[in-house]
Amino acid sequence: MADKHYDINYLQNSRRLLVSLKEASYNYFEKINTGTIIDLGCGAGKDVIELAKIIGSGARVIGVDHDPVMVNQGKEDAKELDNVEFVLSEAYPLPFENESIAGLRTERVIQHLKEPQKVSDDIYRILKPGSPFVIIETDWHSLTFYTEFVDVQQKVNAYLTDAKINNGFAARKLTAYLTQSKFTDIKLNIHPFILNTLEDANQYLWVEKMVQEAAENGYITKQEQAQFIAALQQADENGYFACSINLVVASCVK
Predict the structure, then answer these.
(1) How far apart are CA 102 and CA 129, in angstroms?
(2) Is the pLDDT of residue 92 over 90?
(3) Are 81 and 56 in contact (CB under 8 A)?
(4) CATH fold for domain 8-253
(5) Rounded distance between C-alpha atoms, residue 254 and residue 120, angstroms
(6) What is the rounded CA–CA span in Å between residue 169 and residue 172?
(7) Which residues does the UniProt record annotate as the domain Methyltransferase (predicted)?
């Protein structure tokens, strides 16, 4: 998995924004009452814990992450739950036997992978026939700010999709990955999220930080950075700030 540009605080903040979408993703697994469900790229394990509460004690949930800090936090938070386990592992190869897993969920992970098709194929390998696979992914190219500086916006998006994120167009490629891995019953749903304050945009999307990085990496000039941030601040002060981004949910079955 790639070097991260997030931390536990970022994951907790974004969780507040995505709570309804997360809860909807759990529904794909609620009828699984035996076997093992994996949350791949589980971070600090909040989704692992919620899934474990939904499915009950007959099945178990394993959180998989490559960050020992995240895994240790998950173990601490879930120590009272008997049907939860955490495994320190990269996304490829996955340390599970062929056709041994009853379901798998992954959220905002594919965008970080340098070889996403290998991971998709490996997930197919470990899932039992008929098992669900659910992906939540960010469509970074859909990030939109309503200012006059459309050209700067396009350059910032190019920085995000071409440089900042390993696989910046992952959300748009999900169905291709799943098709090549031979998954069936593929469904795709788009969920737009709208933020109406610059504070929320900075908290959930690190907007000003990303614009600063785009300038530091030569995607925009310092003058363009200043103009763009000033326009966002003015919109915020005057009550018409608007920012939107799409989250994509892909579901399928082995």
Answers:
(1) 8
(2) yes
(3) no
(4) Rossmann fold (3.40.50)
(5) 11
(6) 6
(7) 36-141
